[in-house]
Specification:
- The structure is a single chain.
- Strand 8 and strand 9 form a beta hairpin.
- Helix 1 packs across helix 6.
- The chain is about 20% helix and about 35% strand.
- The strands form three sheets. It has a six-stranded mixed β-sheet with strand order 8-9-10-7-1-11. A six-stranded antiparallel β-sheet has the order 13-14-15-12-17-16, with helices on one face. Strands 3-4-5-2-6 form a five-stranded antiparallel β-sheet, with helices on one face.
- With about 325 residues, it is of the alpha+beta class.
Length: about 325
């Protein structure tokens, strides 16, 4: 793997050209069987049964109380449904789904170690990808997949932005990962580290499981409206989530905070705890400290002044921090 440049150089590469992200540690599960589509449709918050081949979406797996157990990227491929989640959570995903498997013809396999994923993000992302695996249209809809080859090896390219910039994820068998990484760098992509990935994510206002998203919140309380199809039929937790949505009264909201200094922990107003800081970074686009927070209803509107755990002040702002 190529050595990383300094943080500012990496950041500018993604904002102005193209950066390459190592996403190999993400959880990867293959679902197969005659009942696969129907079963998964009843297990996640977004539609599955009506997905066309090579189409996908972003969804959540929730408890009967609407709590967010996992978030998952669902892709219908030729002979399977491909499920992707946060690093280390493939086993939890399989265990959760298996609880509801009774007589269904569905098989779930953890393939996290079998595949590599590299993300390419930035205004020139599609140009870099095209130099390696032939042209991929910049108009490919989010979560849609196209099949390509690299050095004679199958590769799947999926449209996805996790930085606020356009881009795609490239999935290839792990044995060929190093060659693909080197080819993407030689084609003009710059290696990007985790620190810059988090800055870009927060600037874009994108929540992450384990930070803003966890089992204490419903999907819509953590900003995952795009992960819920409010017109689909029943799934586990659907009643709670639908009621919260159609009454228009989530208890909490994902918000942005502008801070004077880095901080963590509770957020208060007049001594009352009204939220928590989830992720705090120094924004290179704004040149100041910013944070994603989960705030109680009534304290989530832009302009709200709050106090942090170190007694410093902050202000609630609308997301995203950096508009693209």
């Amino acid at each position: 793997m190529a050595l990383l440049r300094d943080v500012e150089t990496q950041y500018r590469a993604v904002r102005e050209r193209a950066g390459v992200f190592n996403r190999n540690n993400r959880g990867k599960v293959r679902a197969t069987g005659a009942d696969c589509l129907r079963f998964l449709h009843g297990m996640v918050t977004h539609t599955v049964e009506s997905l066309a081949e090579n189409h996908g979406n972003y969804a959540a797996v929730t408890s009967a109380r609407g709590q967010t157990l996992l978030d998952v990227w669902v892709h219908r491929l030729e002979n399977c449904v491909w499920l992707e989640t946060e690093a280390g959570l493939a086993a939890k995903l399989i265990e959760t789904l298996n609880r509801y498997l009774i007589a269904d013809d569905v098989a779930l396999a953890d393939e996290s170690d079998a595949w590599a994923i590299f993300g390419v993000q930035g205004p020139e992302a599609h140009e870099v990808i095209g130099r390696v695996v032939n042209r991929v249209s910049p108009d490919l809809p989010e979560h849609h997949t196209v099949a390509r080859t690299f050095d004679g090896v199958p590769i799947w390219v999926t449209a996805r932005s996790f930085t606020g910039e356009p881009g795609c994820d490239l999935r290839i068998a792990r044995a060929h990962a190093d060659l693909l990484w080197q080819a993407l760098i030689a084609a003009g992509g710059m290696p990007i580290g985790q620190q810059v990935a988090e800055i870009l994510r927060v600037e874009a206002g994108i929540p992450r499981y384990g930070a803003e998203i966890d089992e204490s919140v419903t999907p819509i309380e953590s900003g995952l409206y795009r992960a819920v199809d409010f017109d689909k039929g029943c799934y586990i937790g659907q009643e709670v989530i639908a009621k919260m949505h159609f009454r228009g009264r989530p208890r909490r909201y994902l918000t942005g905070l502008l801070l004077d200094n880095s901080a963590s922990g509770d957020v208060t107003v007049n001594g009352k705890t009204v939220g928590r800081v989830a992720t705090c970074v120094k924004s290179l686009g704004l040149n100041r400290v910013i944070a994603l927070a989960i705030m109680r209803r009534g304290y989530h509107e832009a302009g709200q002044k709050v106090v942090l755990s170190d007694n410093s002040g902050a202000e609630v702002v609308a997301l995203p921090f950096v508009q693209k």
